[in-house]
């Protein structure tokens, strides 16, 4: 009967370059995830901008309705004065009063919509829903600070977070191929042990022995596992390359589409602001003066007032669309909206 008391310590070592390459791959993947988080941040900024500009449009529409109520009050007073002087029919005063009441009802609805929009924004940014929020935006900034399409496309190709992420993923995939090829190389292992033979038939009973062992771990199975690992890494690299090309094309297409929408919205806004709205305002003033002087054209006056209100409302909506399209254009190219 005999027994041995032994202690062994083993330390494996990978072939030089394997561990550092695996570390580089992990760092590259971490940088790719960081770039993805930056892209998500930009998308959230675009969503917040959309909510903000919708609320801003509601605020401007509310101001338009208030101005419309004031104009209708003026028309109502003129109709009442003319009726008092027997220069107009009482129905004209009633029609003006009905139109003003309808504008006031629209004003109340706009106030409620604005309140809901502000609460939504406060909730999204983590503030109390009832906290006051000041809505301001400069349309001129969206008109004057827009780079050219070529500049935006160049910036997107070099700095867009999504393209950064896909490029880093491609780099990690290429390094993965190199790491898979290194699997053919052997690994090493160092083992240090000590033991003491004990027993009546053991030689040198109770003596302490030390042993040092150096192993070379060579892949078996005719390198089939390593071969399939390299094939898998190569195919993954090809898939990442295709995804990177598709992602780049989608980003450039998105920038081009967003730029087209922005230009169309800008032209529409400028046409409304510089052409249609001044004409509608002039038509309203002429109709109001004509009705005040000779009592003619009451229906034309209401029509002119309604048309002026409609164009003012359209302008607020188009201005909001312009700011939103500007934000989308900046995010599409990889920039912060504002």
Give a brief description.
With 338 residues, the protein is mostly helical. 73% of the residues lie in helices and 9% in strands. It has helices spanning 18-84, 90-124, 139-144, 149-159, 161-181, 224-294, 298-332; strands at 3-13, 187-198, 209-217.
Q: Please, could you describe this protein's structure?
A:
A 3-stranded antiparallel beta sheet has the order 1-2-3, with no helix packed on it. Helices cover 73% and strands 9% of the residues. It has 338 residues and is mainly alpha-helical.
How do the helices and strands line up, and which of them pair or pack?
Layout: E1 3-13, H1 18-84, H2 90-124, H3 139-144, H4 149-159, H5 161-181, E2 187-198, E3 209-217, H6 224-294, H7 298-332
Antiparallel strand pairs: 1-2, 2-3
What keywords describe this structure?
mainly alpha; three-stranded antiparallel sheet; 338 residues
- Numbering strands along the chain, what is their spatial order in the largest sheet? 1-2-3
> Helix/strand-derived class?
mainly alpha
Strand content: 5-15%
Please write the string of helix (H) and strand (E) elements: EHHHHHEEHH
């Amino acid at each position: 009967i005999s027994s041995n008391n032994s202690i062994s310590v083993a330390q494996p070592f990978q072939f030089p370059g394997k561990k550092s390459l695996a570390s580089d791959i992990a760092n590259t993947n971490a940088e790719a995830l960081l770039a993805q988080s930056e892209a998500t941040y930009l998308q959230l900024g675009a969503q917040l901008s959309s909510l903000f500009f919708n609320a801003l449009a509601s605020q401007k529409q509310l101001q338009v309705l208030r101005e419309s109520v004031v104009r209708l009050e003026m028309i109502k007073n003129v109709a009442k004065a003319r009726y008092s002087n027997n220069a107009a029919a009482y129905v004209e005063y009633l029609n003006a009063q009905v139109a003003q009441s309808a504008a006031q009802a629209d004003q109340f609805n706009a106030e409620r919509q604005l309140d809901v929009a502000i609460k939504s924004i406060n909730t999204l940014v983590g503030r109390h829903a009832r906290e006051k929020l000041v809505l301001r935006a400069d349309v001129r900034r969206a008109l004057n600070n827009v780079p050219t399409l070529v500049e935006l496309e160049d910036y997107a190709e070099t700095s867009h977070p999504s393209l950064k992420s896909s490029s880093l993923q491609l780099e990690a995939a290429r390094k993965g191929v190199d790491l898979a090829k290194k699997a053919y190389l052997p690994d090493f292992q160092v083992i240090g042990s000590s033991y003491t033979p004990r027993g009546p038939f053991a030689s040198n009973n109770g003596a302490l022995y030390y042993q040092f062992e150096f192993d070379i771990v060579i892949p078996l199975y005719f390198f089939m596992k390593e071969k399939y690992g390299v094939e898998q890494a190569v195919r993954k690299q090809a898939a990442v390359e295709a995804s990177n090309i598709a992602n780049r094309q989608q980003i450039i297409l998105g920038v081009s589409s967003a730029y087209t929408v922005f230009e169309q919205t800008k032209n529409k806004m400028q046409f409304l602001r510089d052409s249609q709205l001044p004409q509608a305002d002039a038509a309203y003033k002429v109709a109001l003066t004509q009705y005040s002087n000779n009592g003619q054209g009451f229906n034309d006056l209401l029509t002119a007032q309604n048309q002026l209100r409609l164009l003012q409302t359209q302008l607020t909506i188009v201005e909001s669309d312009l700011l939103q399209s500007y934000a989308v254009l900046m995010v599409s190219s990889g920039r912060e909206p504002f």
